[in-house]
């Protein structure tokens, strides 16, 4: 039914149904979001935190990719920190934020947030939803049908969560009642246009082409648009780090960054630069191989046919080129390609990483632009690291992390405080 909207079961919807427009669904969410608006901010955080504790104990959810990290991310301490950095206050503090001697400000939700969710990371929709919920917004997630099976299980679990606060019991239904998941063909211009016009805020994840198309759709004049477009990530190790006793541990952490999400995430490293040191690049590649081999089998998810073919083709090119070298597993678990070109390699994904030796890590800086998201930066000298971070930031990079932290969903992300972008700030004169 290509001319219909499929409204999935789960969230505020009791059973799956087809619809011709978003009008009825938006009306339901608009009514339901009053209950979320009246709920104390700290209760929302406690519900999400309790949900995070319960999902990791539920064996029926164990096969959801990324579940353990979602559970960690939903810790009360982390949600409080996200709230504080986005809303300039601690949850539970209802006092307005002081602007100056005459003015204060408070934040309120934008209303209905429409999310275009890419299908490469199964739980991306839940992270996006959680940020919108902290701002007390209702959400409609446009999802690929293949990730519905994961999100549906999570919404069912969230509905069952309860917490007691004094004499009042709160249910996760406060959150799920303002959420809906929908699917419809993006090529259907009428449905895409009406979905866009339903939003008080648009959140877009996707490729260059998808972002351009969605951003150009008609929208409400007051609606904000938050774009998380395609990004590139890489890692940098300086000479002192390579020669330090902790280098092997850092490589093991980097190996985890490479393997997670099959390198489909914007924060996945595709190229790793090592500054020339007393350790040869072949020795470094060998130690990275050991690090990859030490990871548990459950971390290696099967590859899509197209990605598997790209990995095989890349291996063949390197095996036939005398100027290059390669290390790889007997199967398609991991691939390490070695060359000396100072460049950001085109992503292959499928745990295929390019390692390079450079005379000086400063030679990498001209490669950085606004397409770069995360740089895993391992520089021992603090002064040199601070200078390098400022150069990365000036040239366009969004995040300077360390190995093992590339995928941590921190705030800001892609240069933005996402939850803060999904609220309005209201100026109030002091009495």
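Sequence proposed for the structure above (431 residues):
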């Amino acid at each position: 039914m290509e001319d219909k909207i499929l409204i999935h079961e789960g969230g505020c919807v009791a059973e799956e149904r087809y619809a011709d427009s978003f009008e009825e669904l938006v009306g339901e969410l608009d009514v339901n979001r009053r209950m979320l608006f009246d709920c104390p901010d700290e209760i929302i955080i406690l519900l999400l935190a309790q949900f995070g504790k319960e999902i990791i104990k539920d064996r029926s959810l164990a096969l959801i990719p990324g579940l353990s990290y979602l559970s960690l991310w939903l810790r009360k301490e982390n949600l409080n920190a996200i709230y504080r950095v986005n809303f300039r206050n601690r949850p539970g503090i209802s006092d307005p934020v002081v602007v100056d001697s005459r003015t204060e400000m408070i934040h309120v939700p934008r209303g209905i947030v429409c999310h275009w969710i890419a299908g490469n990371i199964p739980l991306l929709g839940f992270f996006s939803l959680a940020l919108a919920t902290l701002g007390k917004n209702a959400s409609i997630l446009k999802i690929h049908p293949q990730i519905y099976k994961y999100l549906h299980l999570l919404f069912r679990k969230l509905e069952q969560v309860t917490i007691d606060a004094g004499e009042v019991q709160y249910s996760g239904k406060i959150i799920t009642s303002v959420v809906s998941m929908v699917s419809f063909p993006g090529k259907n211009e009428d449905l895409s246009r009406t979905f866009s016009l339903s939003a008080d805020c648009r959140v877009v994840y996707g490729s260059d082409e998808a972002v351009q198309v969605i951003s150009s759709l008609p929208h409400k004049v007051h609606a904000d648009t938050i774009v998380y477009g395609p990004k590139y990530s890489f890692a940098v190790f300086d000479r002192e780090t390579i020669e330090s006793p902790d280098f092997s541990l850092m490589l093991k952490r980097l190996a985890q960054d490479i393997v997670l999400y099959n390198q489909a995430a914007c924060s996945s490293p595709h190229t790793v630069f090592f500054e020339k040191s007393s350790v040869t690049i072949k020795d470094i590649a060998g130690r990275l191989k050991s690090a990859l081999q030490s990871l548990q089998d459950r971390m290696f998810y099967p590859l899509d046919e197209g990605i598997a073919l790209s990995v095989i083709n890349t291996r063949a090119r390197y095996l036939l080129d005398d100027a290059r070298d390669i290390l790889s597993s007997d199967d398609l678990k991991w691939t390490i390609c070695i060359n000396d070109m100072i460049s950001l390699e085109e992503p292959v994904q499928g745990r295929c990483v390019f390692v390079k030796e450079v005379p000086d890590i400063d030679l990498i800086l001209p490669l950085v632009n606004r397409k770069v998201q995360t740089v895993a930066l391992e520089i021992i000298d603090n002064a040199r690291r601070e200078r390098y971070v400022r150069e990365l930031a000036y040239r366009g990079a969004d995040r300077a992390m360390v190995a093992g932290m590339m995928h941590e969903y921190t705030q800001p992300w892609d240069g933005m405080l996402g939850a803060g972008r999904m609220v309005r700030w209201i100026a109030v004169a002091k009495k």
